[in-house]
Amino acid sequence: MGTAAIDDAVAGLRAGGKVLIAGWEDGFGGTVVATEHDREWFDAHTLGFRMVGSADPGSGAFLAEPSPESAAGELLRLADRSEGGFGLLLPVRTTVSGDAVLPRFADDESLVLIDHGDLAHHLWLNSQLVVANGSAPVPTPFGTFEGHVFTSLVDGLEHLALVLGEVAGDGVVTRVHSECLTGDVFGSRRCDCGAQLRMSLEYIAGEGRGVVVYLRGHEGRGIGLGEKFRAYRLQDRGLDTIDANLELGHDIDARHYGVAAQVISQLGITSVVLLTNNPEKMVGLTDLGVKVAGRLPLWSEPTVENGRYLTTKRSRLGHLTSDGF
Questions:
Q1: Which residues are catalytic?
Q2: Strand 18-22 with 30-34, pairing
Q3: What is the band of 275 on the pLDDT scale with cuts at 50, 70, 90?
Q4: Are 82 and 53 in contact (CB under 8 A)?
Q5: Which residue in 24, 6, 4, 21 sits closest to 79, CA to CA?
Q6: How does strand 30-34 pair with strand 83-89?
Q7: Helix or strand (DSSP H, E) at 133
Q8: Which is more confident, 306 or 127?
Q9: CATH 3.90.870.10, the chain: domain bounds
Q10: DSSP state letters, 172-226
Q11: Does domain 129-218+255-315 sit in CATH 3.40.50.10990?
Q12: 217, 259 in Cβ contact below 8 A?
């Protein structure tokens, strides 16, 4: 599959064909999308045909709440069709590997097979999902930055870019910073987030050119403030940050950098030198179309309270200390 398959799916829908969307985990096997109601086929192979309209441009509905209906709406929009429909496939009990069932079905029925994750990735790469929403000078202890607010069309959150100098072009020193209320605002010593934010602003001020992209909704590596506090309690009982997240049923790191990639693009930045220790952040941004031309380390002095936190970043998350890749 892959994102290239999305173009095949769109072409297939325009030609009157059907698309099979895989990758769901909600009790059904797949979703078949079509622009025309082939009642006999859908009654024979699915739970029936449900009409759906095209998604609104830039609505972000599928990314906000992935579902068969919202996925169908996005595909219809991409295919320039105002309406169509979809049918649900139930999971099939079989001795054949589950990974082989849908591809075989797609081949037998001449369907274009895509994964719903590929659709999400395609939308982040090709749809405008962030809009500029005001700007003003922001004087900081390190200099006056130009603050630009960007609103996500996916969840409505407002994000901030603090820009210094002319950043359109290559090699822009960039910090993509995840919101951390406790560290950034209250100076919590349990993490190094506040220190990294201040170090980034200071470094960019020294360079005279750069940007800090401040991402909302990233508390606790994406689990939220309340869950982060629950994780703190588990850490106080001996778990590290990774095992605490897993104990609560969360991913190790649930953050997504689609908003950051779109903000960087809208600022006219064509390549970045990232202020980060996190190799996964570099991979995530690169995957979303950001050219990462280099990396600068961002380690702060450990405290008694965050020593284990920093050690876990290095030993279990692979955070880097040198100034290279």
A1: 253, 255
A2: antiparallel
A3: very high
A4: yes
A5: 6
A6: antiparallel
A7: strand 130-140
A8: 127
A9: 4-125
A10: EEEEEEE--IIIIIT--SSSSHHHHHHHHHHHHHHHT-EEEEEETT-HHHHT-HH
A11: yes
A12: no
pLDDT at residue number 24: 82
From CA 42, how far away is CA 48, in angstroms rounded? 5
17 phi/psi in degrees, rounded to 5: -85, -175
Starting at the edge strand found earlier in the chain, the sheet holding 50-53 runs: 50-53, 83-89, 30-34, 18-22, 112-115
Q: What is the DSSP letter of 25?
A: -
* Percent of the chain clearing pLDDT 70 (strictly above): 93
Q: How confident is the model at residue 2 (pLDDT cuts 50, 70, 90)?
A: low
Looking up tokens 């769901």 gives: 24
Residue 106, both tokens: 């797609």
C-alpha distances (whole Å) from 247 to each of 60, 107, 230, 239, 312 are 31, 41, 10, 9, 16
Please spell the DSSP secondary structure of 26-85, one letter per residue: SS--EEEEESS--HHHHHHHSS--EEEEPPPTT--HHHHS--HHHHHHHHHHHTT-SEEE
**Cα-flanking dihedrals φ and ψ of residue 95, to 5°?**
-85, -10
Residue 97 tokens read as 């590997």
**Least reliable range by pLDDT among 22-31, 49-58, 219-228, 231-240:** 22-31
What value, to the nearest 5°, has the Cα angle with vertex 221 and ends 215 and 226? 95
* pTM for the model: 0.90
Max Cα-Cα span within the chain: 69
Q: Which residue has tokens 């105002």?
A: 82
Q: Which architecture, in CATH terms, is 4-125? A: Alpha-Beta Complex (3.90)
Q: What is the pLDDT of residue 102?
A: 87
Structure tokens given for 51: 């009409």
Tokens representing 69 are 């209906």
Q: Where in the chain is the domain with CATH 3.40.50.10990?
A: 129-218+255-315
